[in-house]
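Quick question about two entries, pasted in order.
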Amino acid sequence: MKYKQLGKSGLKVSELCLGTMGFGTEWKWGADKDNSVKIMESFANAGGNFIDTANRYTEGSSERIIGEYIKPNRDHFVIATKYSLHDNNQRQCIRQQPQKHDAQCRRKSETITDRFY
């Protein structure tokens, strides 16, 4: 796996980013927790460290599954998450940003997010 620096952040991320919209079955499709973990293990074993998620992916299950998986090796992974997916009122989104970030961190059982947009 090749790595690139993420902007001026100093973070080194794998050229491939694992999208996790399909982690969880709340939308009546997607990978259950066990299969999601297998996907992340395969990705990590191939050298991947960059994972993308969002506040609304499978109503938060994606973030919970990722959080449980990365917890023992948190420093290895770079997590990018979106806080306003499907929110139409941009003004309200900006006001709710801190609360949404806090909720997302709770789901992932962590206190920081590497990339929040």
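Here is the second entry:
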Amino acid sequence: MKIQYSRNFSNTEISLNSKIILEKISMNNIKIYFEDDTENAEDLAINKGYRHDVYVKINNDIYNVRVYSLIRLQQDFITDITQLGYFAVEPNLILVNDVNRKEIIETINKIHKNFAYFKDIKPVEYILENKLKQIQ
């Protein structure tokens, strides 16, 4: 990628160009993990319509994301509105068509590439990475 500088070398322009380079580098440094990467865990997640044991590592930061199918989110919404009178969205929520491994990987990669989603959420403060199973 070619970086262009203006004659005045404004900090803003240099910062923006640096940000683009960092984003390109970090796209190659994304890793996705499940706490439980067994066939049984995937079948259970597909049946429940959600998965809370998904972690994404970008550079040195690890994020815990909540993956839901749209159908499960609609069910939870209706139940909470009916029973509680309100619905609160879980933090770090990612919606997928189906809560399977392939869909989760594709969606997280697209979100990271197109929206820089992980810059806007808080990484986990502590987790033993060796307890996670890398899936990508």
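Reply: Residues 30-134 form one domain. The longest strand covers residues 50-58. Hope that helps.
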